[in-house]
Amino acid sequence: MTPSSSNELPSGTxxxxxxxxxIFAENCxxxxxxxxxxxxxxxxxxxxxxxxxxxxxxxxxxxxxRNPKQVRKWPSEHMESFPExxxxxxxxxxxxxxxxxVGQSGLAQKHL
Length: 112
Prior knowledge:
Largest sheet: none
Number of helices: 5
Order of helices and strands: HHHHH
């Protein structure tokens, strides 16, 4: 699944969120859903039962993306690390902004 063009994002969507949408589609959507949208089933839905940005801090979010096995461990853990060469710090900022805006709007289907 690819993201829709940025002109289809709800009005008022920030530029970083539009960038984060692309980052999410390329790096997260293959394994995760967002509010039931997407085909990923390996990882949890990042919008349900509540948006990920409501139960994790930005620092925790970065830690999980950079080295998930150092943050948490369980038998079905499949997430690989995303080093800065794969997702830059500014891309992580944009991704966080996107997830916040989608979580606040509740409109993932309009974003992906």
